[in-house]
Amino acid sequence: MNGDERRLEHADAEKLFEQIRDCTKLMGSLASDEHRRLHLENHQSPIGRGQALVLRILSQDDGLPQMMLAEKLDIRPSSLGELVSKLETNGFVERRKNQADKRVYNVFLTVKGREITENFVNPW
Q: 20 to 30 A Cα–Cα from 28, which one of 10, 36, 50, 57?
């Protein structure tokens, strides 16, 4: 690889990095807007940003095992457990034992959880 090819490859990598950074900023902005809206609409039981992400994922793939949900969110299972507990306390989700493996819990939206996900600002 000669010098011109390296410069071109480096320029392409820089351009790709900028696009990824811009996309990440945009996703963060959209999530913040959605979080503010959900917080205002549900002031009696505010929904945190992480909780909103759990609801969003379940709206697309209801009944995921907790471990898979933690992997999708790239968080520790214990952190997900706290999020799910809060959502369960507020009546947005319920946990059910997996029929095939009784050690596993699947997380499902409740009727109340489905209603709130239908009002998300930026549906997937």
A: 10
